[in-house]
Design goal:
The protein is mostly helical and 103 residues long. The protein is 77% helix and 0% strand. The longest helix has 36 residues.
Length: 103
């Protein structure tokens, strides 16, 4: 099994992504908390915000997994590589083997 040790994102980009997510999440709930509506309206907005956040994570994971699965199953080899592999003629190798057998 070959392990991919290449990191897709830098540490700074990862930090920026988490910091912006946490900042937006806090701003949203501060806005809901300071909203001048009844508790039931605030609760509705909070539950909708949590559901939207959770569904965004799940959707992102499903899309990524589907793309990785389709890449692994269909794109292991390019069409050019497959064509060359199937159309390979080993006559030059046979000639080399014949010469080495004569030696």
């Amino acid at each position: 099994m070959i392990l991919n040790t290449r990191k897709r994102n830098t540490t700074a980009f990862t930090f920026m992504a988490w910091a912006s997510f946490i900042g937006a999440f806090l701003a949203m709930f501060i806005g809901i908390y300071t909203l001048e509506e009844s508790l039931s309206v605030k609760g509705y907005f909070a539950v909708c915000a949590l559901f939207l956040t959770m569904s965004a994570f799940v959707l992102q994971k499903v899309i990524r997994d589907n793309l990785e699965d389709s890449y692994d199953s269909r794109k292991r080899n390019t069409s050019a590589f497959t064509f060359l592999a199937w159309s390979y003629d080993d006559a030059p190798l046979q000639a080399v083997e014949k010469v080495t057998e004569e030696l």
